[in-house]
Amino acid sequence: MDDLLKQSIIFVGGKGGVGKSTTASALAVMFAKMGKKTLIVSTDPAHNLGDIFHQEINGYTTPLTKLLWGIEIDPEAETRQYINGVKGNLKGMVKSNMVSEVHRQIDMAASAPGAEEAALFDRIVSIILEEGNGYDKIIFDTAPTGHTIRLLSLPELMGVWMDGMLERRKKTNKNYSQLLNDGEPVEDPIYDVLQKRREKFSKVRDILLNRHKTGFIFVLIPERLPILETEKAIKLMSSHSLNIGGLVVNKILPNQADGGFLQKRREQEKVYLRMMQERFTDQSLYEVPLLEEDICTLSHLEGFASHLQKAIYQEEGIY
Ligand SMILES: Nc1ncnc2c1ncn2[C@@H]1O[C@H](COP(=O)(O)OP(=O)(O)OP(=O)(O)O)[C@@H](O)[C@H]1O
Ligand SMILES: [Mg+2]
Prior knowledge:
Elements: E1 9-14, H1 20-33, E2 38-42, H2 49-53, E3 62-65, E4 68-72, H3 75-90, H4 99-110, H5 115-131, E5 137-141, H6 145-180, H7 189-209, E6 214-220, H8 224-239, E7 244-252, H9 260-279, E8 285-289, H10 298-316
Parallel strand pairs: 1-5, 1-6, 2-4, 2-5, 6-7, 7-8
Antiparallel strand pairs: 3-4
Bound molecules: adenosine-5'-triphosphate (ATP) and magnesium ion.
């Protein structure tokens, strides 16, 4: 079984509105309380960490509570920065009369679908590689399911794509050197830039695929559609060799909730809880009850975190 308590990078995913941000924040609060230096990162463009912690959080590390810091990645700002970086990398490589045309093309590429995702992914990579050593735990609160999986499969796709680019670059370079340098190899700065990115992606890929370092948690509620969607997501993640560390089953009706209506819902819930146990045999299931109020203060969050911690300890056999 994967050890959620030992992994240093945890991604929290799931369908819209099931409690991803709440779970990610509660885990972060829990780890900080255990004395672990923790960073929580929101990758969902519709951020709400700031609302949860009642504090303005931006693209940079913001202190939240003791031993806990937060970042909300702004995909637009990241894209702008990413594009400026790309332009910067090309400085001195493009003839001056071509610069404005090349920049125009890059700006066009920036507004193409996928550009924000690539920029967002670049930032995630930097956080993992650069901030990774400064924290004991990094928790990622992600956007609803599909988006996250696409994002996580990017290193693989990018890897293949970059191999192709590097290969082509090598060939071009060979032709050039034959033409220009009597066959002597020439320096190719673009090749170097590509090669560096390639190395960065493969490093992060190793971290994401290492189950001792990285965990993926799905949050779901005991209803049919979230179960089906989680099942699909797990299959897709497994096909990219990404291992799911556990499922948080959120908003379970507490025993003390009474009345005929709730009794009916509880019966339905039991069917779905059984279904989860049958379908997700490889996963740890961490159950959290529906609480009386939504989670909008630190003390609510601590309440949620204590339920979650109890469930994790029980699963991991710690008492
Ligand atoms: N166990 C719980 N008991 C009571 N309220 C809860 C519980 N878990 C989550 N909530 C509430 O449910 C709402 C949705 O939770 P949250 O924002 O964490 O979901 P999400 O999956 O991050 O949503 P989105 O997909 O929009 O990002 C919030 O108002 C939150 O306070
Ligand atoms: Mg959220």
